[in-house]
Amino acid sequence: MHVLFEPGFFTSAPVRTALIIGAVTALVSAVVGVFVVVRSQSFAGHALTDVATTGGSAAFFFGLSPLLGFIGGGVLGAGAMELIGVERARRRDLSTGIVLSTALGLASLFLYLDTTNGATTGATQQLLFGSIFTVDASMVPLVLGLSAGTLAVVIAINRPLLISSISAELTKARGINLRGVGVLFMMAMAVSVGLSSIAVGSILSTALLIGPAAASVRLTKSLHASLVVAGALGVVATWLGILFAYDSFYWVPSSQGLPVSFFIVSLIFLTYLLSGLPTVLRDHRRSARRDSGAAVAATRDSLEVGA
Amino acid sequence: MVNAWEVGTMVAVVGGVVGFFVVLRGSAFPAHAIPNGAFAGAAGANLIAVNPLIGLGVFSFAAALGIGTLSRRGRSDAVTALALVMMLALGAAFLSLSSQYEPQIFSLLFGEILGVSSSEILPVVALGVVCLVAVAVLYRPLLLTSIAPDIAAARGLRPPRIEIVFLIVIACATTMTVPVVGALLIFTLMLGPAAAAQCFTNRAGRAMGASVAIALVTIWVSLVSAYESNWPVGFYVSVFSAAWYGIGRGYLWWRTRQPGRTTS
Description:
- The complex is a heterodimer of chains A (307) and B (264).
- Chain A is mainly α and 307 residues long.
- Helix content of chain A is 81%, strand content 0%.
- Chain B is mainly α and 264 residues long.
- Chains A and B meet through helix 2, helix 4, helix 5, helix 10 and helix 12 of A and helix 2, helix 4, helix 5, helix 8 and helix 10 of B.
């Protein structure tokens, strides 16, 4: 038992809070993430964490509630991205980038003012990297409530979301308001990302949003299956990461241990790499078969690849 | 201040030129991810006591190659996001192992251009020239694969391979600029001015020239403002870049309102 669980793992209150918050965040992020990945909005998903962080640093500066800053920042940023342009996929990438760079500029100003005012040392590190172990237990009900709300919205609009990501024409034919669905989804994503940035830090927020979802989309064929697999992958990676981080206090001599985000992200990254394995193996087998096959078929295949 | 002026000018020229292709190819995400993640390399280099420039170089090139190769099999935006968070997580681990001071993290992310020393100028200029030469050599294939990937493939170019080479150019620009101007600044200079320039003209050469000119004006005005007010340069650069983009979009909107002209 002691090999895996170092003493005190199950009795520590911060660990218990971390396990609960981590699981909830991972679950919501994974579900939202499947849609983010399918709709190719990973850049916006990541950019919103930085935009939310800007909101957080502004809240620090003005002495407001950080949660308000994170979620408010994210929602404002999502609104700005939608406002600047959505008509073409390439423009979307650009508008996300412009909003992101403006937000980062503002963040640098607020962090600068925070540190020169001197009241809040450690603000930069705390805001940028966050720590799941320092989450206040009183935040748990609030996070649970907002997460449930986000989840409900995304599940309610799941069909129009999927259809609009596959074909714009089909969406119009069905009489679905493309813009409305897009805005609603961006807002839900902003709340989810804002929540996870404050609860687990901005690095983990992106990792939990994109990683499990991208892996499960590669592994599964239906939406329901990929939602379930993504959720499971996210929760397992988070719990294992917390366990490893806790144990690492005992592994690394004379240190404060390694950050939990490092373990969780590594696990997620590894999962993603492994999720590509089935495709690689299949392609391998196919190309082996092709080598032994007729020359005509080989030429035709290579022409298809080249085109 | 003279040092900052020289470095800033070099960074603006490289940012404007590389940025033209970043905007044209829709590579805003890698252009954000590579500089932002490469900062972890500097933290790692600090930990094992080597020149941060080496750490930055290794990380940004690894990121460019990783994103390029993994994108062939997966969704490129998801791959970029994952590469970014993996690097940032390594950075967090490096920082927790070393006793890094917070101001150093801040300066790596947001830059310390007003504190550039004379010895730092040479590597910046050298790497900048490498970037410009690379873009000059690759100009036609880059343009063709950006605008018409089908024709490029028919001509025997391989778009995925060109993409990796382009990511390496971004990595090179990153290595050169992050130590002096920070991860934020180079991303902003690669995006805003080039995006604005492409609102004003459709001609490739003119757009690239306009993008460099806008980047230069932006950095010069920002340097003066930062010097006067003592606020971070990155703040001014990002705000002015966004303003340029706003002007560009306004110009486009005004053009479409003009009677007798067709939008192209």
